[in-house]
Structures are given as structure tokens and as C-alpha cells.
């Protein structure tokens, strides 16, 4: 990325603020999916990673890795805890994405499946990870969420010693459309566009926008079909999303499962079997269904939505335990541009 926006540590910025107690958690700022792509010099553009969002808190000599739904991730990523403990800075809260790269050097959420819910830290070396850090919200007694993004990014770049595990997320100012085209050619998931003067607010915001190359959606598993032929454990997953408190059926997904995934998922699904269909709008087009309690969330890639709000050419990518099932809604691109 040729153009960069950088500001170094600024004592003046911090002196204007009062010291506060370090929070135990900060609600994460989320990006809104847009269908309007643009190039603006008052916006910066970052790599959209295909990984697991992680809040890292270092407080009084301890490190806490926390998912977006406040689950501890320390046992899953012990080498990340160790890397943050070695940092000279004693107290900070940073935001980033834990990723694992495929042979092409592109982040792939499916590769992280062997680490999610991992309890044996000794196995971690077999699935290498990176923590791609893109924001700083608290540092050495100062809550800096209200400072502009470009100031927070400058402070972040100076705060840590980066290495193979801790990676500073570079960005580009302006030229968003050419960079988006390049991202799609490289098979990235997309870009995140951020208003350079935006504060950090713990909600989904129009100041952060998603430019997606690949359609992706988190969905709730509500049932599965019985396996046929040589297939083991199950055939396809029946999935859906919540709308106005009701679980809406979004179709079947029968691809993307390795033998190991079939076995792992099959065991989980058997433990949560249910007597009745959890979907409010299921059309009974498929028989021989085993229903399950709608508590498991998984990520799926797909071509597009049909007019009937069903997935077209869906493919399983992996389970997610960082989002509650009731929070899963259909993500529809909005006509949101830089001035909206």
C-alpha cells in the first residue's frame, strides 16, 4: 500500500485527557456492509481479514484475550498471550483479528477451526496464527476512544514491538476502488473503509464500512439431513437467521466439510437434537430431517441470496463461538457512501 497516514506518539494528545481505570471489556466497533464503493482521501482502507475478532487487554501484568461476546480465548492462543506479556507496555487495550494464512498467504477462517475451543496449548504450533492489530482504545491510564482514528493508529504503531505473531495492520489513504479491485484479485475477503477522524464507538457504525469480495454470512444451524452413500454423520446442514425474534430458514448447505469436520460436527449435533423444527417458515420441502436446538453458529460463503432469501451455492467455512445465535441476522448490503 503506497499511501500511508501516520502520526507518532503525541504527549499533548494524552495530557488533555484525564486518567481513568482500565476497563475489563470494551464493546467492539463493527463495520456496516455497503454496496457503494468509493475512493476518498478522508477515509483509510485496510485489509478485511477472514479470522476471529479478538480484544486484547493487558492489565497489571496479566493478558486477557476476549472474543466479541466476552468469551476468554487465552487457552486457544497461548503463544499470543506470551507475545503480549513480553511487550514493554504494561497497560493497554487493543483490537484486532486472529488469522491463519493459507499457502497463498491469504487469511482463511477454516484453518482456525483446529484452534477454536482448543484446550491443549501444546498443539498450537501445528496451526500458526497472527494477531493483525488495527486499533488502540486504552493505553497507560488513558481512555483514547474519543481521539480520531489516525491518532489512535499512530499511537498503536509506536506502542508495540511487532513480529511474526503481532502484526500491525497497514492501511492506505484514498484510492479505495483500485485497492478493492486488487484485493479481489488476490482473493482477500475484502476491505474495511474507515473515516480517518472517527472515534471508537462500541456499536455497528457507518464510519466503518465493509467492501466485500466474497459473500459471507454467519448462520444458525437448525437441523441436518441424514447421510447418504459413503457420506458419514450427516448430509447437509439446514441453516437460518433471526428476524423479529423468529428463526428464518435460509436453505441447506452440503459442501465444505472434510471427514474430520463431519465427525466433529456430527458429535456436537447429536448432543443438541430436538423434537420439533426451530424455523418459523420451513416449507417442509426436505424429508428425513433431524432437528437440533438452534444454538450453534457457523460461517458460510455463498454466491448470493435468492429472491426467496435462501442461500445460493453455500459452502461451510467453520463454527463460530464468538457470536450468540440470537444475534445472527441477515446481513444485507446497504446504500451507504462516505456522506451518509
Report on this model:
This protein has 340 residues and is α+β, with helices and mostly antiparallel strands. It has two domains: 11-212, DNA ligase/mRNA capping enzyme (D-amino Acid Aminotransferase, Chain A, domain 1), CATH 3.30.470; 215-327, Nucleic acid-binding proteins (OB fold (Dihydrolipoamide Acetyltransferase, E2P)), CATH 2.40.50.140. Helix content is 14%, strand content 32%. It has five helices and 19 strands. The chain has helices at 11-15, 78-85, 149-159, 176-185, 259-271; strands at 30-33, 43-48, 52-59, 62-66, 92-99, 130-139, 142-143, 166-168, 171-173, 190-195, 204-212, 215-225, 237-243, 246-253, 289-291, 297-302, 304-305, 311-312, 315-320.
Query: What is the rounded distance between the termini?
Result: 26 Å
- The CATH homologous superfamily of the largest domain is called DNA ligase/mRNA capping enzyme
* Class of secondary structure makeup: alpha+beta
Taken together, the total number of domains comes to: 2
pLDDT averaged residue by residue: 87
Amino acid at each position: 500500500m503506497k499511501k500511508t497516514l501516520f502520526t507518532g506518539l503525541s504527549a499533548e494528545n494524552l495530557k488533555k485527557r484525564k486518567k481513568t481505570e482500565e476497563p475489563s471489556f470494551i464493546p467492539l466497533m463493527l463495520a456496516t456492509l455497503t454496496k457503494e464503493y468509493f475512493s476518498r482521501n478522508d477515509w483509510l482502507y485496510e485489509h478485511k481479514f477472514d479470522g476471529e475478532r479478538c480484544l486484547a487487554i493487558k492489565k497489571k501484568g496479566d493478558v486477557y484475550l476476549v472474543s466479541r461476546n466476552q468469551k476468554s480465548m487465552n487457552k486457544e492462543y497461548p503463544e499470543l498471550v506470551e507475545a503480549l506479556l513480553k511487550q514493554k507496555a504494561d497497560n493497554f487495550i487493543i483490537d484486532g483479528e486472529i488469522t491463519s494464512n493459507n499457502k497463498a498467504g491469504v487469511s482463511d477462517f477454516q484453518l482456525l477451526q483446529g484452534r477454536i475451543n482448543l484446550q491443549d496449548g501444546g498443539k498450537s504450533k501445528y496451526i500458526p496464527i497472527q494477531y493483525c492489530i488495527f486499533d488502540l482504545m486504552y493505553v497507560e491510564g488513558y481512555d483514547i476512544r474519543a481521539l480520531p482514528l489516525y491518532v489512535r493508529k499512530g499511537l498503536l504503531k509506536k506502542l508495540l514491538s511487532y513480529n511474526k505473531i503481532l502484526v500491525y495492520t497497514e492501511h492506505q489513504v484514498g484510492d479505495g476502488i483500485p485497492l478493492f479491485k486488487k484485493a479481489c484479485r488476490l482473493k482477500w475477503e475484502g476491505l474495511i473503509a474507515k473515516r480517518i477522524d472517527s472515534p471508537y464507538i462500541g456499536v455497528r457504525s457507518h464510519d466503518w464500512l465493509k467492501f466485500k469480495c466474497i459473500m459471507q454470512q454467519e448462520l444458525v444451524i437448525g437441523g441436518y439431513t441424514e447421510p447418504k452413500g459413503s457420506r458419514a454423520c450427516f448430509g447437509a446442514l439446514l441453516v437460518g437467521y433471526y428476524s423479529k425474534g423468529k428463526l428464518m430458514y435460509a436453505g441447506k448447505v452440503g459442501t465444505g466439510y472434510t471427514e474430520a469436520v463431519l465427525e466433529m460436527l456430527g458429535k456436537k449435533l447429536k448432543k443438541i437434537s430436538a423434537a420439533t423444527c426451530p424455523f418459523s417458515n420451513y416449507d417442509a420441502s426436505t424429508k428425513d430431517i433431524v432437528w437440533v436446538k438452534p444454538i450453534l453458529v457457523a460461517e458460510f460463503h455463498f454466491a448470493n441470496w435468492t429472491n426467496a432469501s435462501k442461500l445460493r451455492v453455500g459452502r461451510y467455512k467453520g463454527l463460530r463461538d464468538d457470536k450468540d445465535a440470537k444475534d445472527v441476522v441477515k446481513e444485507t448490503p446497504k446504500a451507504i457512501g462516505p456522506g451518509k
